[in-house]
Design brief:
- The structure is a single chain.
- The chain is an alpha/beta fold.
- Among the domains are: 180 residues, Glycosidases (TIM Barrel), CATH 3.20.20.80; 49 residues, no CATH class.
- The strands form 3 sheets. A 6-stranded parallel β-sheet has the order 1-2-3-6-7-8, covered by helices on one side. A two-stranded antiparallel sheet has the order 4-5.
- α2 packs parallel to α3 and α5 packs across α6.
- The longest helix is centred in the first third of the chain and has 16 residues.
- The protein is globular.
């Protein structure tokens, strides 16, 4: 779940840093920062609320439009508290290892003061994935019992596999009613659960968040999700995490009625464009180079006289993007 997100974010950074030369004014493209769309959102993953608030003036000065922050709810505690504890809520209290409710509200206000929007990461498909424990804010919980919030009957117990975990991603019923890696799967088809989730999201909206990034959406039926989001009192930007690279019965197109979706195949497409120099914006680079083939390396010269990266595609057709395409900075080109 999170690994895919991290790769997507890393790839976004790569695209931003290694983009092809901008088209000049004669070509109709943007030539100054002011002409660029003001829509870039940075993910300050794992940053605490005070640090995000301090960073927003610098982000505003660089032209960033918004910040996606980590989940704000109370979460499980384990030894070392790795990143994934954030994605195992045990209550909807806004108190996590990154700060409390007051700090979260202050962060939103500080960022809004300099024109930077805040996007909350919302985990609503499930609760925790272990037998029980004590949450960050002191909540004592068990796998299917979260005091004052949920009890066993508020969860799916799919009965389709030996341990109720998802085993077959070709089965819609398993994906949306069984457990993702033992995470207690909320019965989002019930009125009560929909109401409790909506109240949590409404709390975030009331504090001023500008949008929601909804986690693990493929595991929530589209109708359930639309019913939950339809209860919000104010319209905010919504974008869904739907890992869809084709070949499964649940596709991202099912969720466009309630928000935008994160396109996970985008990374593969961009990787292919870099590997085979297919991007139209890179035509000048491609024209100046020998056509690449697997196992070869090439260096091209950009219009401003500097060398493009030296790139070596992998011979392994099953390699990941990072394995099958590696580049090192090219030497400075000689000017005539």
């Amino acid at each position: 779940m999170r690994l895919h997100r991290f790769r997507w974010l890393m790839l976004s950074a790569v695209v931003a840093l290694t983009g092809c030369p901008a088209v000049g004014a004669g070509g109709g493209g943007p030539t100054t920062r002011a002409e660029l769309p003001h829509d870039v959102v940075v993910n300050l993953f794992q940053w605490n609320w005070r640090s995000v608030a301090a960073e927003c003036p610098r982000l505003a000065a660089k032209g960033y439009a918004g910040v996606q922050v980590s989940p704000a709810t109370e979460h499980v505690q384990v030894f070392g508290n790795p990143w994934w504890v954030d994605y195992q809520p045990v209550s909807y209290q806004l108190q996590s290892r990154r700060g409390d409710r007051a700090a979260y509200a202050a962060m939103i206000q500080a960022c809004h003061a300099v024109g930077v929007r805040i996007y909350a990461d919302a985990v609503i498909n499930h609760m925790a994935g272990s037998d029980g424990g004590r949450g960050w804010a002191g909540t004592n919980w068990t796998h299917y019992d979260y005091p004052g919030l949920y009890q066993s009957h508020d969860f799916h117990h799919c009965g389709l596999t030996g341990d109720d975990d998802i085993r077959d991603y070709q089965s819609r019923e398993q994906v949306q009613r069984c457990e993702l890696s033992n995470l207690a799967d909320l019965a989002t088809d019930t009125e009560y659960v929909q109401g409790r989730i909506a109240a949590y999201l409404e709390d975030l909206v009331s504090l001023g968040v500008d949008g929601l990034r909804v986690d693990a959406v493929k595991h929530i039926p589209a109708a359930d999700l639309a019913a939950i989001l339809g209860r919000l009192s104010r319209k905010v930007d919504i974008y869904h995490e739907v890992i869809d690279k084709g070949g499964e019965p649940i596709g991202m197109g099912e969720y466009t009625g309630s928000g935008r979706v994160l396109v996970f195949s985008y990374g593969d497409q961009v990787g292919s464009a870099f590997q085979w120099v297919r991007s139209p914006g890179c035509a000048a680079w491609a024209a100046a180079s020998t056509a690449p083939s697997r196992g070869s390396s090439w260096t091209t010269t950009t219009p401003n006289g500097t060398a493009a990266p030296r790139c070596s595609p992998s011979n392994n057709p099953d390699a990941t993007l990072w394995q099958r395409f590696s580049c090192s900075p090219g030497p400075t080109a000689n000017r005539s």
